[in-house]
Amino acid sequence: MNIIVEHNPSTIKLSELGVMSWPKWSCQPGKYALVFEERETCYLVKGKVKVYPKGSSSEFVEFGAGDLVTIPKGLSCTWEVSLFIDKHYKFDPPTSL
């Protein structure tokens, strides 16, 4: 699935990336079908989620509050949110053909 999870990155790294200036997104517990048109980097302030690739019920990646996560372009997946999500995020600029 190629989701990269960095647990508890340093405040220096978060500051260098400018994480706190990124837009925010939040959601309540539940299941959400998502498609990532571009690569996303996000930092979870609150919450916990399991991400299942489309068509799988056993393979998943789990991450939560304090994790810096990179989600690959083109991933179709289901987010199973167990704790309210509050995250900062940014998408890579679209690539031209």
From TrEMBL:
It comes from the Eukaryota. Residues 14-89 form the (S)-ureidoglycine aminohydrolase cupin domain. This is (S)-ureidoglycine aminohydrolase cupin domain-containing protein. It comes from Brassica napus.
